């Protein structure tokens, strides 16, 4: 009886040791994707389920660019370029509500005719990738009810007469993208804090059906919506680039 009891105790101890070894080898190893002692999302990934999407970040915008969005921003114009060498893009308006971003509208659009760049220069015909504030608007058309300061000037925003007819109303409505400019000044202000070689005068404006010099263009209805929605008190920004660089 005593020997049987010892044998049963020995078997129970061995089984317990095996169970503990198995448990430790599944937690905190390289295959689990987690550091020792850390659980939560990594444990879910190890079990084969995909991590839940982050409800806080804007869809398609990676951590690198999202970290550059000012904490006080409550409105984002996201420009999703089709490809690094493409002039086609999509503009989506997001508004912060509660703990997440909610889509308010989307429109087909165009960007620089040669695509996108991380290092924009004058006349490279590419739109700059990045996060930029939106602080002023204007155009040759009368103010449609813009919440941004609106500079109505039929001469300053007139397209050159030698441009094709389809381009003549490009600047009927414009919203200045604060790339290499003084934020808050009218879009027509030509000051270039980074120097002329870095380009400037990059706007959201009306679409003519093809690529631009570096601006982002969209339908008139989209521009009117943005002008009536973007509110300086909500610190609007544009997050723009080809989908690969946006998601990095």
UniProtKB/TrEMBL annotation:
Keyword Signal: yes
Ranges of Low complexity composition bias in the record: 30-51
Signal peptide coordinates: 1-28
Region ranges (Disordered): 30-59
Keywords recorded for this protein, A-Z: Signal
Name the record gives this protein: L,D-peptidoglycan transpeptidase YkuD (ErfK/YbiS/YcfS/YnhG family)
Species whose genome carries this gene: Streptomyces murinus
